[in-house]
Amino acid sequence: xxxxxxxxxxxxxxxxxxxxxxxxxxxxxxxxxxxxxxxxxxxxxxxxxxxxxxxxxxxxxxxxxxxxxxxxxxxxxxxxxxxxxxxxxxxxxxxxxxxxxxxxxxxxxxxxxxxxxxxxxxxxxxxxxxxxxxxxxxxxxxx
Length: 143
Prior knowledge:
It is a single chain. This protein is an alpha+beta fold. The protein contains four helices and four strands, in the order H-H-E-E-H-E-E-H. The termini are far apart.
């Protein structure tokens, strides 16, 4: 990934661009946008996930909504999932607010990422979500 938010960091971009030309970047962007479309199609097959938009670039927003989850707690649930995934260290996903509701967001940036990585992320979200639900159910039962 190329970071260009700090003035000296542009040298990395300039060097690669000068040496390889624009086609390297075009191929990377095309691949990442195509990967996002394939991830979108994969996500639509999952009954426990809600896709929030049709992606136009390399970002995909969605929610994990297992059937038993109460809608009034869905935003907090998304945040807990995101925070636990981040703490586990296998994936980094961000959160976003769409129309005032919290959602999970994946931004495909690394051209070495493949669809199977996204499928693994979905499985980890499911396991994490189920663990969070079981923990909260146990806590509610002890009150």
